[in-house]
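Usage example:
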Amino acid sequence: MTSPARRPTRVAKLPPRERILDAAEELFRSEGIQRVGVQAIAEKAETTKMAIYRHFETKDELVAEWLRIVAADYQTAFDRVEAEHPGRPGEQILGVARFIAEGLPAISHRGCPFINSLAELPDRAHPARQVIEQHKERQTRRLVGMCAQAGLPDPEQTAAEITFVLEGAQVSTQNGSIHRTGERLMRIVEGIVDRAAVSAPTTR
Amino acid sequence: MTSPARRPTRVAKLPPRERILDAAEELFRSEGIQRVGVQAIAEKAETTKMAIYRHFETKDELVAEWLRIVAADYQTAFDRVEAEHPGRPGEQILGVARFIAEGLPAISHRGCPFINSLAELPDRAHPARQVIEQHKERQTRRLVGMCAQAGLPDPEQTAAEITFVLEGAQVSTQNGSIHRTGERLMRIVEGIVDRAAVSAPTTR
DNA sequence: CTTCAACGATACCGATCGGTATCGCGCGGA
DNA sequence: TCCGCGCGATACCGATCGGTATCGTTGAAG
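Running the assembly step on the lines above writes:
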């Protein structure tokens, strides 16, 4: 009656490490890093503090691991967008913007985990800071590459403009209404790309 | 020898309340809100915890008061920019952007206090949240007004775009180099205004 | 069947948190 | 002159923090 892969109750609980990371994801996103204690994570993960410290050296390392997963998810989304529009960098840029725009309601009132973590972790020696900086660097590099492939005259400048707009939009979801912020954001990015392309009407 | 207005030593210390607010300004900006204890503020202000609680009901109220002062400073800066270019809304918009751009090095590696406070205070009932929302609302209204006076066809849209860019630029100062971010930001805002004005070449 | 490692539970540690109570001192206004 | 209040200092409160030690149990591999 005790087959290994399935348990009658609890519908096959995930292993502790994944339950911990899932709980951390929920709590860190909704309440921030500093306000969430290790005990709270353990309870939400249906385990104990000790189990957490068996899998992660410190709370700071758990935070870093969480952000690594979030960063990997962003990378995957970028890959998918890129694959959906092969050889059409203009569409890829808009796809990235759409990905962010469509995610705005989900992060409503809490903004981007990376931006928030930056605000919560002023110590540049914190292990999570490396994760954040590497992530931002990669995303910027990809965006610059798309702009360059689109033949835009100043890829770094346009990529910076798009980055600023995307981050600003995510920040703005935290207060006030999100009404139409997504559509607004899409039209802004469309305008940026169109304007940047006036002197170089190549692929797109 | 003990004249009231001047003291031989300590070069005329400010009254406790202002010393507390000055200390809070420094510490909250550089280390964030949650990481700074009331005791640390008292020590930097050369006073005691009790003195702080004589002037502020709670730490949360002190945070709100600090943000009220920061918001008032922003308002003053906006007023000055507006007065420097009377009747020239295009120049006013660029003046606002220049104010933010020139402030980037000063907030280097720590970003905007409002954005950071939003990340640190997820509780919408926190007294500081009202201050932040009112501030953002006012700034947005002023920027929309400038865009409208400049005769731009869609003031809300353009104001939103500028707001996003300004906030994104401030966020981006926290990681990586600030090299040329100010100039970059200025050129971006110039481009936004120019593009938005193509169908309405009025004042400017 | 035995063994070993991961797990869950509990109790505990020192440190720090926001906030309070209670002193004594000193200066300014009446 | 004297009163009173703001001030600085100290000690203290309960709660929570990140992190550790030590149990008994369990489940899967050998």
